[in-house]
Amino acid sequence: MVKARKYVVRKYFEGVPKRSDFEIVEYELPPLKNGEVLIKTEWVSVDPYLRFCNRNALVPYDQFSYQVGIVEDSKFPSYPIGTRIVTHNGWCDYSVVDIPKISESYISGNLLVVTYKLPNLKGLSPSLGIGAVGMPGITAYFGFLEICQPKAGETVVVTGAAGAVGSVVGQIAKIKGCKVIGFAGSDDKVKWLEEELGFDKAFNYKTVDIQTVLKAAAPNGVDCYFDNVGGEMSSVIIGQMNKFGRVSVCGSISTYNEDPTKMAKATILQPSIVSKELKIEGFIATRWANRWQEAIAQLIAWIQSGHLKTNEHVTVGFDKLYDAFVGMLAGENKGKAVIKI
User: Fold this and answer.
1) What CDD domains does the entry give (predicted)?
2) Ramachandran sector of residue 227 (left: φ over 0; alpha: ψ -120 to 50; beta: rest)
3) If residue 251 lies in a helix (H) or strand (E), which one and from where to where?
């Protein structure tokens, strides 16, 4: 028997999550059955979408957060001992995965259940498998390229620009020859975006008038907008878009800790959408699940060539998962927030 630990959400919560909302439970894993593998967790991801999911239901965080782990025992020949694997069993230190069952779930259309062998990262840290070459990087790759379809010379705006997804979107936009403007939540992040990641201009949204600085930075308007935050900021940016502009809606992190019944109202978008014939589309990265390997290969190539820079905010220790999660929601991270177990 293997003793394991996992985080359990005690209750539905509103506002900023509290430590008392979570409990660490110890339990014994049963012996493996045919088709199953035992995984020892090495790296765990914390992402904004977890808070979004928990707004309306008790989300089992040990199932909805990505992890990179290593197979310690196996009853499935294609996943022998020593295989590194990416799964959804994140907020736990050991887990059992039924590989055929996961495959059947995927084939039947449950694309939120994603399990696959960690690709050859060619010397890069395995942690990137839940970061720049994992779900966040894949989200940036398809969400930006497929929906915004950027053209060289166009102006791109990214909110949440210093986060795991936004920082990759901005760099892909530069690779594609675009002018890139980012909004982030601190002067330190602004400096990082401009001086290290190559954004043409970045702003601390907490200290500037967004409408004024955007008009100055993009006097000819905005062609593509990658929206991570929602709220009034997005209304202002969409109001400055050009004819036939494209908006890729990835999230609305500005609202995730708000009481759903007391959310601030934002300026209506319909006049801009209609008069400028805008395309606004939301997405989930698993829409392109059958093409993930394409994205992973390209992201690795860009990292190795120096065109895509990665940064990780690493927290060490299973007991620090809560701190890493709340810190990520508070914007403490530059790039991807990960926990080393």
Assistant:
1) leukotriene_B4_DH_like
2) beta
3) none
Q: What is the pLDDT along the chain (341 residues), one digit of tens a residue?
A: 799 999 887 665 566 777 887 889 999 999 999 999 999 999 999 888 777 665 555 555 545 688 999 999 999 999 999 999 998 887 899 999 998 887 655 444 444 557 889 999 989 999 999 999 999 999 999 999 999 999 999 999 999 999 999 999 999 999 999 999 999 999 999 999 999 999 999 999 999 999 999 999 999 999 999 999 999 999 999 999 999 999 999 987 766 656 666 666 788 889 999 999 999 999 989 899 889 999 999 999 999 999 999 999 999 999 999 899 889 888 888 999 999 99
C-beta of residue 9 within 8 angstroms of C-beta of residue 54: yes
Measured CA to CA, the distance from residue 150 to residue 183 in angstroms comes to 19
Q: What is the pTM of this model?
A: 0.91
Q: What's the CA gap between 225 and 235, in Å, rounded? A: 11
3-state secondary structure of 241: strand
Enter the tokens of residue 297. 């290969």
Selection from 320, 309, 328 nearest residue 133 by Cα:
309
- Matching residue, tokens 């309306």: 56
Q: Degrees (nearest 5) of the Cα angle 253, 51, 319?
A: 125
The DSSP 8-state label assigned to residue 152 in this structure reads T
Q: Which residues contact 97 (CB under 8 A, 6 or more apart)?
A: 36, 37, 39, 85, 87, 89, 115
Q: On the CB side of 97, how many CA atoms lie within 13 Å of its CA?
A: 35
SS3 36: strand
What is the rounded distance in angstroms from the CA atom of residue 185 to the CA atom of residue 271? 29
297 backbone dihedrals φ, ψ, rounded to 5°: -60, -40
Determine the 3-state secondary structure of 204 from DSSP.
Answer: strand
**Spatial distance between the Cα atoms of 247 and 108, rounded to a whole number of angstroms:** 30
Q: Which amino acid is at 133?
A: V
Give the relative orientation of helices 231-238 and 210-217 as an angle to the nearest 10 degrees: 40
